[in-house]
From TrEMBL:
Residues 7-61 form the ABC transporter domain. InterPro entries: ABC_Ni/Peptide_Import, ABC_transporter-like_ATP-bd, Oligopep_ABC_C, P-loop_NTPase. One of its GO terms (biological process) is peptide transport. It comes from Streptomyces capoamus. It is found in: Membrane. Pfam families: ABC_tran (PF00005), oligo_HPY (PF08352). This is Methionine ABC transporter ATP-binding protein. GO terms for cellular component: membrane. Belongs to the ABC transporter superfamily. Residues 112-176 form the Oligopeptide/dipeptide ABC transporter C-terminal domain. Keywords: ATP-binding, Cell membrane, Membrane, Nucleotide-binding, Transport. GO terms for molecular function: ATP binding; ATP hydrolysis activity.
Amino acid sequence: MSRRDARARAVELMDRVRIPGAAQRVRDYPHQFSGGMRQRIMIAMALALEPALIIADEPTTALDVTVQAQVMDLLAELRREYRMGLILITHDLGVVADVADRIAVMYAGRIVESAPVHDLYKAPAHPYTRGLLDSVPRLDQKGQQLYAIKGLPPNLTRIPSGCSFHPRCPLARDVCRTDEPPLHAVSGSRRSACHFWRECLDG
Ligand code: SF4
């Protein structure tokens, strides 16, 4: 590809991710763009390879809420348009609700729950997922203390025996300290690595 063609392609991709004045800005340096624009340019660079799948690791970290929503809308739109897969890695369950079809929740390096997005939000089948959802600030709880899962994530070189979440789990019992729970089939394609997933599901 000639330099002229490469530049035209870069302008086209910058346009596609809605960088205003792409033709004038194509030679700008990263520090001349805002955080949101830099994120869009990263997405444009990924699109240049015409991927079948994009893995976006914390794509909205350090962006304000409005720009977060714009970046997520853009990713969802591009996913549909390019018919590609999208794996989002995030610690923020609020960010993925409108974009993801499925969620896999990981704890200590292992998937502890996976489910279609609406099922998981409606009724989590693992205490860690429930704790994460309860930790999301809500407008109807204004003035109240925010919920936090007790304790700290484990040291990955010394993962607790049995269920790795047991030192922090409000439902933990003796069996949780000794027996690692397998991924139980909850329903359809839904899975939970909790001995007491039924109890968790019932709230
Ligand atoms: S297996 Fe036990 S400790 Fe682990 S999440 Fe379920 S109830 Fe909690």
